[in-house]
Design goal:
Layout lengths: L5 H24 L32
Length: 61
């Protein structure tokens, strides 16, 4: 037999699921304030040469 009743087990499960949800939300939004948003990228000068190395840090497909 379990040391906890079914009500205690469900309450424990609810608390764990809420904490997991908060943890996932924190992971998704942590550092999102430093993301490059559309329209915020610097526009290069017209006469400058293109970069020879593509910088893909922080970019998604």
């Amino acid at each position: 037999m379990s040391a906890l009743s079914i009500d205690d087990q469900l309450t424990f499960l609810e608390v764990v699921l809420v904490l997991v949800g908060l943890g996932i939300t924190w992971v998704v939004f942590y550092g999102s304030d430093r993301a490059e948003l559309p329209g915020e990228a610097a526009i290069p000068a017209a006469g400058s040469a293109d970069d020879m190395e593509i910088d893909t840090r922080g970019r998604t497909l």
